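Weekly structure sync, notes
Attendees: PL (lead), two postdocs, one rotation student
Agenda item 3: pending single-chain targets
PL asked that the sequence for the first pending target be pasted directly into the notes so everyone works from the same version. It is reproduced below exactly as submitted, 620 residues in total.
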Amino acid sequence: MIQAFFNKIKVSFMNLSIRSKLIIANCIIISIVAFSIGITAYSLYRQTVTNRLSTVNLRDLKQVANSIDYLQKDIIELSNFIASDYTVQKAISYSPEELIMAIQEQSYVRYLINNLLISKEYVSFISVIAGNGFSHYAASDRSFGIPTFQMLSETEYYKKAYDGKGSPLWAYLPIDNTDYITSNKGNKIIMFRTLLKMNDYSTKGFIMISINLDKLKEIYRSMLEIDQSTLILLDENGLPIFYDTNKPTDPGFNGVSDILDSIPEKALNDGEGTEIFTYNGKQLLLTFAPLKNVSWKLVNIVPLQNFAVNVQFIPVIVIIVLVFALFLGFYFTTFTSSMLIKPIKNLLASMTRVKQGNFKETVRVKYNDEVGELCLHYNDMIANINRLLNQVYTLEIEEKIAELKALQAQINPHFLYNTLDTIYWKAVSGDNKSVQEMIHALSKLFRLALNVGKDFLYVRQERELISYYLLLQEKRYKNKLVYNLDFSPNILYYQIPKLILQPFVENAIVHGIETEDKPTNVDILGFMDDERLHFIIRDNGKGMPQEVLDKLLNPQIDANSTPDRGGYGIKNVINRLSIYYGSKYSIDIKSELGNGTEIDIFIPQTPEINIEKGNLKGYV
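Predicted structure, written out during the meeting:
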């Protein structure tokens, strides 16, 4: 099989022109050499740049980790200061009754908390709450309200802090968590710890201090200056606490957890370092470093290509050198050979245009050589073909005109018979006023149907014709007919062949009212649908079986039908539409016995053939 493949390649190559063979052979040799050099240089340079920039990125991430460590350490010292303050110890140690009288101590603690918040710009929230009922908080991010000590004592972080006996507990508190702050206005990283009484180390209160995330963003902002960079803070279990990114929305991005699933396990277990891994088909540079005060880890992820931007220019340089060498090596060969084969190319291009349907094509002859003689014979052949095609087109159009006029002549007697039958029964009943109205409507209807001998009318005129027809039928059937006629304004001034909707409306009424005792509902809708005119005729009649549908949609099945047999007008419409629009129109009939019928007619905005009064216009 491999041998057959190479034989096929060989045959294809040998069938090329001599100039093409020489150019391809030389291009392959030069390309292999240039490609080998480029790949080697690219690999070496990429590895060098990646190693250097990975080191720089790890250094920057460790600086961010150290800054966060410093903030956490300072907050821990701040909490130690509050917990060991003599007045704070007194305030949280009072009984509820004593606390009420200790107004000065309460004021001092509030003053202390407020001033500490003001003095520490990286702190956004401080609260102290004790079991004796004392509580106070201060916030710089518009957060407000803390629950009671009893409510806090039931929370997860209080229980963990209680077990820690005054040790700091760090956690991420999202904005929607109201267990610790009644109205939380932002995501927070909070340190929790219990307040212990100094002399017996019993738990008396609870303290919460949060880091201002805006200040935190200033610390790691430099890590997000690289395009599509993502910074993730992981807890001691390797779960994301929060993340920040400048990565644009990516349809393939399913969240941080999805990225973490692709991260090598080594990166989550080791202390610090860098790794390269693949996510969504892209190579990413992973840098990770731990925090010292808590068992958390900072992770930075950035596409590798953003680090090694300069590496991308190596393939470009190789391609430029390759193109320049090819240009110099084959300039004269291509110039000389092009002069020889240009007439043949012109002849082939002309043949292609003829194949696409342009039979007025000719080739300009400059020289009297063998190619010039071939072009002269080709021009004569195209002229003969064009003359024969014109004769065939003329005969075909004349045949379509005769067929169209015969079909239109069949419509009027059939329609007139049904309408006059309706007026007759009104006259017999003695309803002279209805007869007057119906005759007036019939005259208007005929005026529209005749359309001054034109075969096309506007959609608004077809709508008016249908309205008069429905009026006549409503007069005949009284309360048995309910109809809705609704055409969109944006289609009213498109032209369509006349009398293409009336046969379907007539069919809906005849098969509804004349066969059912219940009222018949008929909806006639028209609107623009995907740049085509879409008409819907829908009724709630008895429906039609499949064999009847097949006959309606395929006029050739029952070619011997006559106006007094069902479906004659519909078959007439299908024949007319096929003449005007070819295969670009469509009719879809959905019907079930007992569930009514819906007819969808799709018509292009313009016909393929437009015949008016025997004149040929716009034949394509």
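Discussion points:
- Confidence is low (pLDDT under 50) at residues 562-566, 613-620.
- The longest helix spans residues 18-84.
Action: rotation student to compare against the earlier draft before next sync.
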